[in-house]
Amino acid sequence: MESAERVERTYGAWWLAKSFGLFGLQAWGTxxxxxxxxxxxxxxxxxxxxxxxxxxxxxxPPVLWATRQDRYHRxxxxxxxxxxxxxxxxxxxNWPYRSGxxxxxxxxxxxxxxxxxxxxxxxxxxxxxxxxxVIHHPSVGHATVVIRAQPDGASLVDPEVVDRKVTEYGEFQxxxxxxxxxxxxxxxxxxxxxxxxxxxxxxxxxxxxxxPAPARQLVAEIVEDAPVGAAxxxxxxxxxxxxxxxxxRGLEDRLRELVxxxxxxxxxxxxxxxxxxxxxxAQQLCEMVRVAYDxxxxxxxxxxxxxxxxxxxxxSDVGPHYADAKPGYYQHDSGYSITWAxxxxxxxxxxxxxxxxxxxxxxxxxxxxxxxxxxxxxxxxAARQAEQDLKAAAGYARSEGTAAGALQxxxxxxxxxxxxxxxxxxxxxxxxxxTVTDPERLADxxxxxxxxxxxxxxxxxxxxxxxxxxxxLPLGVVLNGHRRTTSLKNAIRVQLPAALKGxxx
Length: 505
Hints:
This protein is α+β, with helices and mostly antiparallel strands. It has helices spanning 27-47, 49-67, 76-91, 159-176, 196-204, 213-225, 251-259, 262-270, 282-293, 298-306, 356-359, 379-400, 403-420, 442-452, 465-472; strands at 14-16, 97-98, 120-125, 131-137, 142-149, 182-193, 231-242, 278-279, 322-325, 330-332, 335-344, 367-377, 424-436, 457-460, 492-496. Helix 5 (196-204) packs parallel to helix 10 (298-306).
């Protein structure tokens, strides 16, 4: 029998959410230039040539300088604003950050810094009596539920199964667009070195007591040799909701209402290839944050867990003792981190392995965290955004007359068409954070990410490293709610095509 050759599936048709103007400017830059010209013409008529030329030189060149975009879609005005904000924070004594009894925190505790300082942690039980940690963000009125996942991976998996898992993940995103009160969700993969205690604990729980002696000896040898160069991969999914405003209901009741949705969401998530999905407990969340800010504490924590003496951590004591937001990196206790933000997705269609190299462990990195940020759009907003993007793409294609403009117009047409047929639409972005314990290895960390990013355009969050580090953690930080803190504004808009639904039923 002749078997038809399988065609590998590709994915794409995303669109960069931006406006287009004259001379490579954004819409607001073009509007500022137009206002300047409107003011300049009457001055030329009534005041004469010299005052008009003086006004022209004082206004137009600075506007062009401040609003022109670079290859990362950032203007000089954005960069200048970031530097000014960082300088003001340092002048006010916000940096370097010191906590603890000898620090500047009024409570004397090891409080989280920056946009995480006001957060509080609560714990409840779901219908299966599993502990569920919920993070409250009072400054923006959000609450976040965190789910732990154990991704299956694609190794030794049939291509048809991979395609089905990708489709299920698209269905999960579409389902999240219908989740009441959901403002954002994220998926985080954390790659870190596996300690001997962690591997020993994991293997001991899998070895049967009545197993043959040679098999037990082989497992013991594997455990003894594996920690050298071994990597541990952890998956996290966060769902951030806006809290409903009911004056007769307290905070605890509103948070408990979110916990009631967790069982259904974890069941849906397990169908996407996320493996066993379980809600994170308060202790697990505190351990993750504590190690992220102080990677040198990972081995002692694992040893304490293996010995049965792991202390109960409190949310008010998981922050760094010392942290400083430098222009090119973020120093926090024993770690030095750099965070990149995606400024442009691959222009061409991609396969399911597009993030493979970026997610793989690298010997030059002590820890690596890759976070996909999603913002679901309700049907009304999605329709409006699709039409606006289509008009902007048409204007850009006419003004540029290039192949790139034609492809963007084609993508905008497909998005609008799919959305009109009922497809869901989300804004998504990507954050990559790497951590090393020696500042001399920061250059090697940059080289490792630059060689692994592929066709994804990544930009260092130079003046917002602290905010980027916090946003890449699976804690449900929605950067749009902290515009004064971060300069991450670009989002990639993608639709979830209705054509993918039901292909593998």
